[in-house]
Write a structure and sequence with these properties.
single chain; alpha+beta; five-stranded mixed beta sheet
Length: 428
């Protein structure tokens, strides 16, 4: 696209320089902003004009969207503040999904508008495809470990010298009677097994994923690409007895099942993958690409990343939980429940917290959680004691490992039992 404004993800308001003249004329015509899932408090980006200067605030989102439909678009790439390196958001996602609990919290990670006009972009700037591929393979791997779900499904077969189920009279006359195949009978009957519509759909998506990984290696490091291919090789044998779904546009309905709850999410993500490649497997290998407008919430991804790190330190199922909900719509990021480490953890994708104190609003938010009776009850802490509060933020001068013994080393001044901890993000 001739008129694509490319800017870096920023944690502060930034002045844009060297803007394409056409895009500049578009921006001077009006201010632009985009909300995430139409929530006013979650703005993907905001472009404003002050004294003939154009300012951008990306507000912790990366993605692409139209400024003027079919004429000018904005692309926000993942980048670390004050550094040339980019955030390796795929490694963040892959590491976070090593904690199986995170597979239940992917629904608000990104938002794509498949019904809007698609935006042509350079192939190497396609962020949506790899993030869909990683999520799908992680979900599929978990399903295969459990064993594919079996259920009843109908089969039509031309049986030899026997009858089973219901005879399809019209087809029987056309295929067998007219052709004098009197020992054959076309029957429709139920079978209990894994060759269900749901599994056929998943196998269809696997073919698209296989084609993508065979041609698009620039998004993943050698180790990442090898890891994803190993996941695909691990899953493939489980689908040997499953046919590929013939109708790519067929709507797949899956019943909720407590044991197989990953099916619903895997089919949702699989549907996005098919839409992403316009249901055409050849497009998974093309070098030119178009993408629907989409946005990825980096603050949400950071939460998943931190939870995955903490899960390695607190491996027992009840030691740590993600997004506990309480009355009044209150929702904590992370609760640590183990012994002396019991605390409320809030994740902030804000590097400036390394050299300064968190904002007053962020501190009030965490402190508010530590005063809820329901949080005390959930952590099993007596009301006469003070619950610790911990803000974990991102910064490249910190360790990429979270050590439980380091959680409460850095106190926030003027507060009792209030701490902060930095964690390094992976880089490309």
């Amino acid at each position: 696209m001739d008129h694509l404004l490319v800017i870096s993800e920023q944690h502060v308001k930034e002045t844009l320089k060297d803007v394409n003249p056409y895009i500049k004329s578009v921006l001077f015509a009006k201010a632009y902003q985009k909300t995430f899932f139409h929530k006013q408090e979650m703005q993907c980006f905001q472009l404003t004009i002050e004294d003939d200067n154009i300012f951008a605030d990306t507000n912790y989102f990366i993605g692409v969207d139209w400024l003027e439909p079919k004429k000018a678009a904005l692309y926000v790439e993942p980048k670390l503040n004050d550094k040339k390196q980019q955030v390796n958001f795929l490694r963040m996602l892959m590491e976070s999904l090593e904690a199986p609990e995170n597979l239940d919290h992917l629904d608000k990670l990104f938002h794509a508008e498949f019904d809007e006009p698609w935006i042509p972009i350079p192939d190497q700037k396609d962020l949506l495809s790899p993030i869909l591929i990683v999520q799908f393979l992680k979900l599929l791997q978990k399903l295969v470990r459990k064993g594919l779900k079996k259920s009843y499904y109908r089969v039509t077969e031309n049986l030899d010298s026997r009858i089973k189920g219901k005879i399809l009279v019209g087809q029987q006359i056309k295929e067998n009677i007219v052709k004098n195949r009197l020992n054959k009978t076309i029957c429709n009957y139920q079978v209990f097994g894994i060759n269900t519509t749901e599994n056929q759909f998943l196998k269809l998506v696997m073919e698209f994923v296989t084609s993508y990984l065979s041609h698009k290696n620039q998004f993943f490091s050698k180790d990442q690409n090898e890891q994803l291919k190993n996941m695909l090789n691990y899953c493939s044998p489980a689908f040997e007895q499953v046919k590929v779904l013939q109708n790519k546009h067929q709507r797949i309905n899956t019943r909720k099942n407590v044991f197989y709850r990953e099916y619903e999410e895997a089919i949702r993500i699989g549907g996005y993958i098919l839409k992403r490649f316009s249901f055409n497997i050849n497009k998974a290998s093309q070098n030119q690409t178009s993408t629907p407008p989409f946005w990825i919430d980096m603050s949400k991804l950071f939460e998943l990343y931190v939870f995955g790190k903490l899960k390695k330190e607190f491996p027992n199922p009840d030691d740590i939980t993600y997004h506990d909900r309480f009355m009044g719509g209150k929702e904590t990021d992370i609760l640590i429940r183990e012994g002396e480490f019991k605390c409320v953890v809030d994740c902030k994708y804000k590097p400036n917290y390394h050299s300064g104190s968190p904002s007053l609003d962020d501190k009030r938010q965490v402190v508010g959680y530590t005063r809820l009776k329901s949080v005390y009850d959930r952590l099993g802490v007596d009301y006469d004691k003070l619950i610790k509060a911990l803000i974990i933020y991102s910064h490249q001068d910190c360790s990429d490992r979270i050590d439980k013994d380091e959680l409460f080393k850095t106190a926030i001044e003027e507060y009792i039992e209030f701490y902060k901890l930095g964690v390094r993000l992976p880089e490309l």
